[in-house]
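Archive entry. Fields below.
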Amino acid sequence: MTLSKPNKLIVNDVTLRDGMHALSHQYTVEQMRQIARKLDEAKVDIVEVSHGDGLNGNSFNYGFSAHTEREYLEAVREELDHAKLAALLLPGIGTVEDIDMAVDAGIDTIRIATHCTEADISRQHIEYSRDKGLDTVGFLMMAHMIPTAELVEQAKLMESYGAHCVYVTDSAGALLMDETRERVAALKDALDCEVGFHNHNNLSLGVANTVIAIEAGADRADASLAGMGAGAGNCPLEALVAVLDRMGVDHGCDLYPLIDAADKLVRPLQTRPVQTDGNALMLGYAGVYSSFLLHTEKAEELYGVDSRDILVELGKRKMIGGQEDMIVDVALDLAEGDE
Ligand SMILES: C[C@H](O)CC(=O)C(=O)O
Ligand SMILES: [Mn+2]
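PREDICTED_STRUCTURE:
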């Protein structure tokens, strides 16, 4: 099938940001350099670098990273000739001072992420980033949790603050195919700015849903090498590019350096394989934030409660990003027999 798309797809790699979750934020600077070099050689448009939970995520609650974000950003900046450098920020975890640091370290793009019902807290950060001349993106996380019409209203807020692009972000990898199409098409219809799509492979729909998003008009798509990311990982970049090649979609990336980087650089780093195994599947099934996976497995070990039960309960309680401490709460409740 050939898809006629008016503009080239913008490919945003998240191996060095979402991929941080899969490694408990422990990339070395040299690993980041090697991966960034290959992404640049493959002509990926945007390479994102940050703590997995965004700038300043370095903390007891989210996990400490091996190096500072300035060290990571400055190192990757030196490796990029073609690709733009991006950082992610969640208002409240990161502040405008972190945007200043990232600008100083050389970013071109900032992505401001909020829970899908909280777009209003992105105003200050989006306006500030626009004033700094950054390519500015709004990122509506856990997009499966609200109906499409509400998501559109939240996206319009981000656009009104000045976002160049607003993302449908399937943080839990929970969206079904029709749900993906409906959300992306509705944002495309309602917004003048670009629309993006980011997802997780928890229900094994990573590539399929990204292709559907592109068919529905997404201008930007996120993916990562070997799917390196939270939960079952993100849409695997090399597989997406192979499929888009077959479909005749203009994405501008070279397949072979991506395959080489996925197989030789990234997969060997995956101490816990990034795949749709039982617990990762449960994230998509129960609608739970993908970065809860490793924290939940730790709670299983500590409190002797089945991870799957913890994840189902977290989904029932509608826990969202930032509520990582509730994983322990739920595990303790289940251990005591009261849920
Ligand atoms: C901070 C999160 O990891 C952002 C993200 O990639 C998602 O919600 O998915
Ligand atoms: Mn993600």
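CURATOR_NOTE: The chain has two domains: 10-268, 278-337.
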